[in-house]
Design goal:
Strand content: under 5%
Keywords: Acyltransferase, Membrane, Transferase, Transmembrane, Transmembrane helix
Distance between the termini: 27 Å
GO molecular function, one term: acyltransferase activity
Structural class: mainly alpha
Helix content: 55-70%
Order of helices and strands: HHHHHHHHHHHHHHHH
Organism: Streptomyces javensis
Largest sheet: none
Pfam family, one: Acyl_transf_3
Radius of gyration: 21 Å
Oligomer: single chain
Number of helices: 16
Protein name: Acyltransferase family protein
Number of strands: 0
Shape: globular
Length: about 400
């Protein structure tokens, strides 16, 4: 990510071409990471690979929707409109993130430098924020006996552990012949398996898995197809129909289906609904994710630079989102449940998460999100040889 809050120029940035000689960085999908190849690793005479504005824009817009949906959650009991919006956004905001994560994991293998980045960029932040969230709950919720548990992700940290598992298993998914049908079968089996338990939030890991595999299977031309004018036009009535259907379904459907964290038995549904809902929700999510991508700008916008900091916004806004419940803000201020209050809450949520994605916040919390930790790893002989060769060139 650049340090400027206003990228220069408004030219369109092309999506990465399939024939590009340099594969995408395995950390490029992580909202806090750079997709730019370090200059030292670039062949002589070549420019470092630049970030793609399209994906940064998509990540920023998705994280804004995440924050807004979290702010709507306390309003859904009293507002059918808020519930409908909540259901529609939950259908595609995390799937969009996960598809991008899978897309930029295509080059992941077990090379030591990539495993190191997997540890420092995902595993270490998971441990840090799991501890931080636990301490916050003890203080803010007046629950001093709340236990620490690295096996039971709390609130937003499930995404980190899920991304760790998905990426670690990427070589396997790249090896099998039909990865997406297999992932859907795994998700279906998870949906009808109540004994999986809460360890590492495996229900979410397995039920969201097909979206990661979908991204893993995608190619640049697929994003080009989504960007066609006909898709953008069709997305408008599709979103309108989704909102109308959600408004009808709001009092009739349990929104916990969209969390993908429970089995059908835990949701009080018969086992046969597992395959039906898994495939139906996957299909709906893919359609809405495509509609969302169709309207994501491809040129540099004022918020493009914030796309590299969305992991910061994602994890940090959780303290305010949970704190608002612990401190009873939505109970104490009933005007928040009125239309003007709902609009105010939405604007505040979008503004807060935007600030949390900015470069100053990234610099302040980089020690937790992107620790160097060179002291923790042995020197890899192959990596040292590559470094010496590059330096000599």
């Amino acid at each position: 990510m650049t340090n400027s809050l206003r990228p220069h120029g408004y030219q369109r940035t092309p999506l990465p071409q399939e024939a590009a000689p340099t594969p995408p960085s395995p950390r490029a999908d992580e909202p806090g990471q750079q997709a730019t190849t370090p200059p030292a690793a670039s062949p002589a005479g070549q420019q470092p690979k630049q970030r793609d504005a399209f994906f940064d824009n998509a990540k920023y817009l998705a994280i804004v929707l995440v924050a807004m949906a979290h702010s709507w959650e306390p309003l859904t009991d009293t507002s059918r409109t808020a519930e409908a919006l909540y259901m529609v956004v939950y259908t595609f905001h995390m799937p969009a993130f996960i598809v991008i994560s899978g897309y930029f994991s295509r080059s992941f293998d077990m090379r030591p430098d990539r495993l190191k980045r997997l540890i420092t960029g995902i595993a270490v932040p998971y441990v840090i924020f799991e501890v931080a969230y636990t301490l916050f709950k003890r203080w803010a919720d007046d629950d001093p006996t709340y236990d620490f548990s690295l096996l039971d992700p709390w609130y937003l940290t499930w995404f980190l552990i899920a991304l760790f598992v998905w990426r670690l298993t990427t070589p396997i998914w790249k090896l099998v012949r039909w990865p997406l049908p297999l992932a859907l079968a795994v998700a279906t089996l998870a949906a009808v398996s109540p004994d999986i338990g809460d360890d590492l939030d495996m229900q979410r890991v397995l039920q969201f898995l097909p979206f990661f595999i979908l991204g893993l299977c995608m190619r640049p031309e697929h994003f080009q197809m989504i960007r066609r004018r006909s898709v953008r036009i069709a997305s408008v009535p599709i979103f309108a129909c989704a909102l109308v259907f959600a408004y009808w379904a709001a009092p009739r459907m349990n929104s916990a289906w969209f969390y993908h964290r429970d089995s059908v038995q835990e949701l009080g549904a018969p086992p046969w609904t597992g395959p039906v809902m898994t495939l139906a929700l996957f299909g709906c999510s893919v359609v809405l994710v495509s509609c969302f991508f169709a309207w994501v700008p491809r040129r540099h916008m004022w918020f493009t630079v914030l796309g590299a900091g969305t992991l910061y916004g994602y994890l940090l806004h959780g303290f305010l989102a949970k704190g608002s419940r612990f401190w009873g803000w939505f109970d104490d201020y009933q005007w928040l449940h009125k239309p003007l209050g709902e609009i105010t809450v939405t604007i505040i949520a979008a503004s807060v998460v935007t600030v949390l994605c900015t470069p100053p916040v990234q610099r302040a919390f980089r020690f937790a999100m992107e620790p160097k930790m060179a002291w923790a790893f042995r020197k890899d002989p192959a990596e040292q040889a590559r470094s010496r060769t590059t330096t000599a060139a």
